[in-house]
Amino acid sequence: MKDIQMVDLVSQYNKIKDEVDAAILEVVSSAYYINGPIVNTFSKKLESYLNVKHVIPCANGTDALQIAMMALGLKPGDEVITADFTFIATVEVIALLGLKPVLVDVDPKTYLIDPREIEKVITPRTKAIVPVHLFGQCANMDEILAIAKKYNLYVIEDTAQAIGSDFAFVNGEVKKAGTIGDFGCTSFFPSKNLGCFGDGGALFTDNDDFAEKARMIVNHGMKERYYHDEVGVNSRLDSIQAAILNIKLDYLDRYNESRRKVADYYDSAFCKIKDLEIPFRSDKSTHIFHQYTIRVKNGKRDSLQKYLSEKKIPAMIYYPVPPHSQKAYQNLINKSNFPVTDILSEEVLSLPMHTEMCEEHLKYITYAVIEFFNM
């Protein structure tokens, strides 16, 4: 049997190799390596897919979050609320800009920011909320937008793990993840559902003024060359990555559907295991399963991971140390209790999940997990 991969990017590439290679060669032949025509083509194509007015490409997803906060005019000392159960980049950019990260706990079912906790920490200095659409489905944007409107706050969606997911509002309207708040931010890191072959990212917005500012900021604050109207950064998506993404965007819905089928297989196999909790699927959001993350109860998580490793099955812990416990942020964050996050950090385990999963691998993985719980 072929080795099982956590993410099999080689097999995915081999299926679209001719298209991708031709697109890369076209960029190399053109010598438009940065901000070339293909970057604009990809931006327009992604705008159409997301049904959003503006896509502003940048160098990576972390930069996208930083640029969004800069474009919204957040100032040192302003407070930004976000989830405690997230990759550190979400909190990192808040700290880098001299803003104050205000962490809140997450919903124990969805692992997403709990709207009930947001309102408890709002102060006169609060300026923005950053919901993280973790593992592939959207946070409760109905409630988050209502809170933001009540307190006149910006909403910046961290969509790095949920591009292509749909959110259904209570009024029946459906919007893509990242197009709901003032800004959406995503990463095109290779392992993402829409990933390039290096680093890349983008911001999304329907606001013309925000988009204009973000476009200047990504390019040293310039609107006209050598005239710097904003303090900016150097954060541009290179043309080769845009060419790859332009091809892969055509496959994104198929990739997401493939992931859902893998998740369905796992769900069916694991749904009756007493000490294992399968991912919750919200009725408000489609789940595109950037990760398939289970909860392993009664202190068995690390033993299961070790057992799977012995069977040559990779399994990852996202995330073992939450932001509130990270050494670098002890003097920056609010001192609160995060009981759900603490429990999740002890119980979550992500199983192999990618677009090229075969039935042989799925049978082997699920059998191993079931065997562990039957020992």
Low-confidence segments, ≥5 residues, pLDDT <50?
A: none
The SSE order reads: HHHEHEHEHEHEEEEEHEEHHEEHHEH
The name of the CATH architecture of the largest domain is 3-Layer(aba) Sandwich
pLDDT average, as an integer? 97
Q: Write down the Rg.
A: 21 Å
Percent strand equals 15-25%
Main sheet characteristics: 7 strands, mixed
What is the overall number of helices? 13
- As laid out across the biggest beta sheet, the strand order is 1-9-8-5-4-2-3
Return the CATH class of the largest domain.
Alpha Beta
| Helical residue percent band | 25-40%
Count of β-strands = 14
Structural class: alpha/beta
Structural notes for this entry:
Strand 10 (222-224) and strand 11 (227-228) form a beta hairpin. The strands form four sheets. A seven-stranded mixed beta sheet has the order 1-9-8-5-4-2-3, sandwiched between helices. Strands 12-13-14 form a three-stranded antiparallel beta sheet. The model has no long low-confidence stretch (mean pLDDT 97). The chain is globular and about 70 Å long. The chain folds into two domains: 9-104 and 111-250, 3-Layer(aba) Sandwich (Aspartate Aminotransferase, domain 2), CATH 3.40.640; 252-374, Aspartate Aminotransferase, domain 1. It has helices at 9-15, 17-30, 37-50, 61-71, 89-96, 115-118, 141-151, 208-218, 239-248, 252-270, 301-310, 339-347, 359-374, and strands at 54-58, 79-83, 100-104, 126-130, 154-158, 166-168, 174-176, 183-187, 201-205, 222-224, 227-228, 276-277, 292-296, 348-351. The chain is an alpha/beta fold. Helix 10 (252-270) runs parallel beside helix 13 (359-374). Helices cover 38% and strands 15% of the residues.
